[in-house]
Design goal:
- The protein contains 15 helices and 22 strands.
- Helix 3 crosses helix 4 and helix 13 packs antiparallel against helix 14.
- The protein has three domains: about 290 residues, FAD/NAD(P)-binding domain (3-Layer(bba) Sandwich), CATH 3.50.50.60; about 110 residues, Succinate dehydrogenase/fumarate reductase flavoprotein, catalytic domain (Flavocytochrome C3, Chain A, domain 1); about 90 residues, Fumarate reductase/succinate dehydrogenase flavoprotein-like, C-terminal domain (Methane Monooxygenase Hydroxylase, Chain G, domain 1, Up-down Bundle), CATH 1.20.58.
- It starts with a strand and ends in a 14-residue tail after the last helix.
- The strands form six sheets. A six-stranded mixed β-sheet has the order 8-2-1-12-21-20, with helices on both faces. It has a five-stranded antiparallel β-sheet with strand order 15-14-18-17-16. It has a three-stranded antiparallel β-sheet with strand order 3-7-6.
- The chain binds succinic acid.
Length: about 525
């Protein structure tokens, strides 16, 4: 029996844990908050995929849509592999107990931006929560999987310090309950920590999305890839002072339309369907249901031109009973703000949503170094990994699919070559370190970081703002290192250090790029 440590409790981490458990391995899952505080749990839309393995046409269309959305940057072999494995993995989810919506005996399928047809399975408007529920239940009933909540991975332990090619033998983590640093030895570590939406002031991500896994792997010698491609979701609700709430693209798939102030006035005065008045038509003939990069940019541009804080999503022309049945969570959230689905125009604006780039990994999820060699014993799965599936822009609802396929592939890879060589792991060096008494400078530096990324490394970029961000990040990095070298880790300190590193990779990748593709849009390159 080998021991595998998995960092993160979203779909990728939990699915891989179940696979490894079934093969008889010991699994320890560490997760920063409660298991359900993952981006998976917040995913609304669904999981794209063709269930019928004989439906070659359906798969070809899914592959083509993914490649087109990825704007020439996808790895076609990876896309093919993920689309072809979709049916088996979705059936695995069903057998674990995930309850996707049905229409009679068939699955009810929805459509989102960039999809040429309905191919997305869903559980009303809370698909991720349903997947998380089923996977967590299954993990809870396993004897070989121990799940440690409120445990923050801090750094990977290399077999030979300073030599990534010798591999990883464990992890140092912070018990957020006791404040103690612990070392866990492992035959392999699977990083499934999700993304880094907290880098921007407005994000649809949960408060755990601080790029921890990416940062710790990079410090252990891993390469990052395509970091400039960060996806902003076009429609996060702008109501109240709460955290932005996602309004799923599936609502536009059912006919919801984006309008600016002027379009809304014209629509109300006219007798035509709202799409006729949508500013999005100037960007694509697909209008409000164009791919996410195009729609988010169109919203951003409209808001900048008009000075408005939001655009409007209108749904009053749609069947209210259908809306009520398909989007109950969105409906009840809207009601909290005195808004009514199918009646009121909804104020929405783009928000940071998904890290399309990430750790460079191969087709089995093995983490790679800059020279293309693997780091033995280290895997990256889910949002943290850049597999080549999404190219320069992720097709909606392909992320849960990619996560489950790569979780399975990484687990299979380990199971076929189980390393069984637990080594002693050193304790965290704590001599001379003191407990951080004042967190105020960290709070201020985090605000500066998020402001910098929002203002200078957002949806539309230019070289001078990117260079300004780079200088600011260098300064923030010096400041956080000064504190890091003399303090015992705290959650705030670990996260800030990670966020600054990830922001640096995003900014530097954006500066290096000489052409606009997908989600990377630099005005100086037009
Ligand atoms: C959404 O429901 O709009 C988000 C789905 C996704 O990001 O794939």
């Amino acid at each position: 029996m080998s021991r595998v440590v998995i960092i993160g409790s979203g779909i990728a981490g939990l699915f891989a844990a179940l696979r490894l458990d079934k093969a008889g391995h010991e699994v320890i899952i560490i997760t920063k908050q409660r298991p359900e505080d993952s981006s998976t749990n917040w995913a609304q839309g669904g999981i794209a995929g063709i269930l019928d393995k004989t439906d070659g046409e359906g798969m070809a269309a899914h592959i083509n849509d993914t490649l087109a959305c990825g704007d020439g940057v996808c790895d076609e072999e990876v896309v093919r592999c993920v689309v072809e494995e979709a049916g088996d993995r979705i059936r695995d989810l069903l057998s674990i107990g995930v309850d996707f919506e049905k229409d009679g005996t068939e699955f009810h399928l929805v459509k989102e931006g960039g999809h040429s047809t309905r191919r997305i399975l869903h559980a009303k408007d809370a698909t991720g929560a349903e997947i998380e529920r089923a996977l967590t239940n299954a993990v809870d009933s396993s004897d070989n999987i121990s799940l440690r909540p409120h445990t923050l991975g801090v750094d990977l332990i290399q077999r030979t310090h300073g030599n990534p090619e010798d591999g990883i033998k464990g992890i140092w983590c912070l018990d957020l309950g006791t404040g103690n640093m612990n070392a866990i030895s492992a035959d392999a570590v699977l990083i499934a920590t999700g993304g880094c939406g907290l880098l921007w002031e407005r994000t649809t991500n949960p408060s755990v999305a601080s790029g921890d896994g990416l940062a710790m792997a990079v410090r252990a010698g891993a390469a990052s890839k395509d970091m400039a491609y960060f996806q902003f979701h076009p429609t996060a609700l702008m109501a109240g002072n709460d955290k932005p709430f996602l309004i799923t693209e599936a609502l536009r798939g059912e006919g919801g339309v984006l309008l600016d102030n002027e379009g809304l006035i014209k629509y109300r005065a006219g007798h035509e369907q709202p799409e006729k008045y949508s500013f999005t038509l100037k960007s694509s003939h697909h209008g409000s249901l164009a791919t996410r990069d195009v729609v988010a940019r169109a919203c951003d541009q409209r808001m900048k031109v008009t000075g408005a804080d939001n655009v409007w999503l209108v749904t009053d022309h749609l069947d209210k009973t259908k809306l009520h049945n398909h989007f109950p969570n969105i409906e009840s959230k809207l009601n909290e703000y005195g808004l009514s689905l199918g009646v009121d125009p909804l104020p929405v604006a783009p928000a940071a949503h998904y890290m399309v780039g990430g750790l460079s990994v191969d087709i089995d999820g093995k983490v790679l170094m800059e020279n293309g060699n693997e780091i033995p014993g280290l895997y990256g799965i889910g949002e943290v990994a850049c597999t080549g599936m999404h190219g320069a822009n992720r097709l909606a609802s392909n992320s849960l699919l990619e996560a489950v396929v790569f979780a399975n592939r990484a687990a299979d890879h380990f199971i076929a070559r189980p390393n069984n060589n637990l080594e002693d792991v050193p304790s965290w060096r704590a001599e001379g370190m003191t407990k951080l008494e004042e967190h105020a400078p960290l709070v201020r530096d985090l605000e500066t970081l998020r402001k910098t990324m929002t203002d200078d490394v957002g949806i539309v970029r230019n070289f001078s703002r990117l260079q300004r961000a780079k200088r600011m990040l260098e300064l923030l990095s010096i400041e956080v290192d000064l504190i890091w070298t003399k303090s015992l880790p705290s959650r705030e300190l670990v996260e800030l250090r990670n966020l600054i590193l990830v922001a640096t990779h995003i900014t530097e990748d954006a500066i290096r790029r000489t052409e606009n593709r997908g989600l990377h849009y630099n005005k100086d390159l037009i």
